[in-house]
Design goal:
Elements: H1 7-59, H2 73-85, E1 95-101, E2 107-108, E3 118-127, E4 140-149
Antiparallel strand pairs: 1-2, 1-3, 3-4
Helix pairs in contact: 1-2
Length: 151
């Protein structure tokens, strides 16, 4: 007995095999594009957070009771707002560092920051990719530094 196959059924099987071969690289590329977009978004957020925190800290450097750079009520409010906006900034490994520097970018005492000195704020946030092969490289740190002169 001779069996005859319909020509349409073998083409459907071939298309299924080709689709399954192309699907995995396509998904990796798609996930990589999503990770790139997330990275750009977080990087922009970190830069904006550093600028905003430095701006508020330059206007309100410290509380009147204890003058340590960055301990003012206004700075604390902006930091809390930025933690809710920037992904990863509320993470325990994220950091916000306040420094008082001179025009040559050399550190001064954080308690003796005077008019004409500069506030340097450094914001660092961990970033983890979700793409399987890229996640083997480990977590990355996105950081931004902003300088603003005290009035």
């Amino acid at each position: 007995m001779i069996r005859r196959h319909r020509s349409g059924s073998s083409k459907r099987g071939q298309a299924l095999v080709e689709f399954s071969i192309v699907l995995i690289p396509f998904l990796f590329i798609l996930m990589g594009i999503i990770d790139l977009g997330r990275g750009i978004y977080v990087n922009n957020g970190v830069s904006q957070a550093a600028r905003e925190i430095a701006r508020v800290t330059s206007v309100h450097p410290c509380n009147s009771g204890s003058c340590t750079l960055g301990n003012s009520t206004e700075t604390t409010a902006v930091v809390n707002t930025q933690k809710s906006l920037v992904p990863g900034l509320a993470d325990p490994t994220a950091s916000i560092v306040y420094q008082c520097v001179d025009i040559r970018d050399q550190n001064l005492s954080n308690t003796a920051c005077r008019s004409g000195d500069f506030v340097r704020v450094t914001v660092s946030v961990p970033f983890r990719v979700v793409t399987p092969l890229l996640s083997l490289a480990g977590p990355f740190t996105l950081a931004s530094v902003s300088h603003i002169q005290l009035p």
